[in-house]
């Protein structure tokens, strides 16, 4: 029967020397390993959890010749300190992955984007449902001051009358659009009968006067009236 003695192996014909050599790594594309774990990958490959990858897997980032898990919870694509995209079912907002977009934002694809200025709830940057306190809504946007041609009414801006630029209500204009004249809170293309123009306003002629140059000079009386 053969038997061994240290590094020698005795058989019926005498002694023969044996040699123990390190078994090569069985992990694909690994250069240096121990047991079933790779310690260093071959050139062009990256080490992650003891395995070698040609590109870093999802939810990891590359640093040198290694892949590291994203530091931000539920992040799918990242760099060392920034999340670029979240896992399915999550939205990216302020470098975090969340399940629901917060107030003042809306879901756009896999991200939460900000509503327009002053908007508290919206479906897009151009469609607001509710404005913040101190803002008024007009055309689904929020304003601190109502835009030209509108006036504040409650929490919204309403249209002034036709051709009016500034007003306090739909029937009380204080300034007309260019080429229009103001008279009794309304805007006219030309001053109506019984009035005269002065600047951008129309003023009433003297009583019973149909046409006048100013309040004291009448050029045509109303029907059934004559000059005296």
Descriptive report:
The chain has 228 residues and is mostly beta strands. The protein has a domain at 179-228: Ribbon (Hormone Receptor, Insulin-like Growth Factor Receptor 1, Chain A domain 2). The chain contains no helices and 29 strands. It has strands at 3-5, 8-11, 14-17, 30-34, 37-41, 46-48, 51-53, 60-63, 66-69, 75-78, 83-86, 91-93, 96-98, 105-108, 111-114, 119-124, 127-131, 136-138, 141-143, 150-153, 156-159, 164-169, 172-176, 181-183, 186-188, 195-198, 201-204, 209-212, 218-221. It has a three-stranded antiparallel sheet with strand order 1-2-3, with no helix packed on it. Strands 4-5 form a two-stranded antiparallel sheet. The protein starts with a strand and ends in a 7-residue tail after the last strand.
In short:
The protein is an all-beta fold.
What order do the helices and strands come in, and which of them pair?
Elements: E1 3-5, E2 8-11, E3 14-17, E4 30-34, E5 37-41, E6 46-48, E7 51-53, E8 60-63, E9 66-69, E10 75-78, E11 83-86, E12 91-93, E13 96-98, E14 105-108, E15 111-114, E16 119-124, E17 127-131, E18 136-138, E19 141-143, E20 150-153, E21 156-159, E22 164-169, E23 172-176, E24 181-183, E25 186-188, E26 195-198, E27 201-204, E28 209-212, E29 218-221
Antiparallel strand pairs: 1-2, 2-3, 4-5, 6-7, 8-9, 10-11, 12-13, 14-15, 16-17, 18-19, 20-21, 22-23, 24-25, 26-27, 28-29
């Amino acid at each position: 029967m053969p038997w061994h003695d240290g590094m020698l192996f005795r058989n019926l014909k005498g002694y023969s020397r044996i040699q123990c050599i390190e078994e090569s790594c069985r992990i694909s594309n690994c250069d240096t390993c121990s047991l079933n774990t790779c310690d260093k990958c071959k050139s062009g490959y990256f080490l992650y959890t003891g395995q070698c990858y040609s590109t870093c897997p999802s939810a990891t980032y590359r640093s040198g010749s290694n892949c590291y898990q994203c530091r931000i919870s539920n992040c799918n694509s990242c760099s060392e300190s920034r999340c670029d995209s979240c896992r399915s079912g999550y939205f990216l907002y302020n470098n975090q992955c969340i399940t629901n977009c917060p107030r003042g934002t809306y879901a756009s694809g896999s991200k939460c984007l900000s509503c327009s200025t002053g908007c508290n709830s919206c479906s897009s940057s151009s469609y607001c449902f509710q404005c913040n306190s101190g803002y008024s809504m007009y055309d689904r946007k929020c304003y601190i001051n109502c835009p030209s041609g509108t006036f504040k009414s409650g929490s919204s801006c309403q249209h002034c009358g036709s051709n009016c630029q500034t007003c306090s209500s739909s029937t009380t204009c204080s300034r007309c659009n260019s080429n229009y004249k103001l008279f009794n809170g309304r805007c006219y293309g030309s001053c109506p009968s019984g009035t005269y123009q002065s600047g951008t306003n129309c003023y009433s002629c003297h009583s019973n006067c149909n046409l006048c140059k100013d309040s004291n000079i009448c050029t045509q009386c109303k029907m059934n009236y004559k000059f005296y």
